[in-house]
Amino acid sequence: MDRNPFIVVEGLDGTGKTTLRKGLFRLFEGLFRITPLAALTTNFLDAAVAGDLVDGKYRPTEENQHRYLAALAADKQATARLIAASLPVRPVIVDRWLLSELAFFSVKHGRPPKETHAVLTEGLGVAPDLTLVLDITPEAAMERAAARSGDATRPDWDVLDIQARVREVYQTVTDEPGVFPALGRVVRIDAAQDRATVLHTAWQALDQYGLLPELPGGSA
After folding, report:
1. Cys bridge to 14: 57, 144, 173, 180, which one at CB 3.0-4.6 A?
2. What is the pLDDT of residues 174-198, one digit of tens each?
């Protein structure tokens, strides 16, 4: 590659996205002496739409869904500019990017993922080289999430039937990667495995697709 990779980690809450992101971060630092840029899907980089982002995410209604979608598109464009500027010098690892948004609008607003994909990717200008989807049953994900301290939960979202529907959207979308090109290559990983195995599987995927730089000293 003539630049560093843009990697996205997706999955239900409790699947181990943060753990995987941190593991990849440390491997890039330790092996290649490169410090990646780590980001969250909604970064509030476009201050003009921050209010609509908060309102649409935490108080979703039929009336505010279009403002929320427009705000997400604007904020992603701002984030994409940061990502594009970073890739020549460092990898970028993002915790959620597009897949989670497709699921949100499908489950909460009945909007087809292809429509949401079209709106969010118009003029985006950057796409992941690899989207890693951590897959686990909603029951296991919620049990893990509940065991963590300090996490805010949403009573209209963090419930079993909603999370089961979110997982269904994840599976449907990732079964048709050609229909959603802005996801880049997609690799699903069994997140019920131990953390070391999940990290190893993700690293193997990066290697398989030629997304790792040469080791210092010129070795592959």
Report:
1. 144
2. 999 899 999 999 999 999 999 999 9
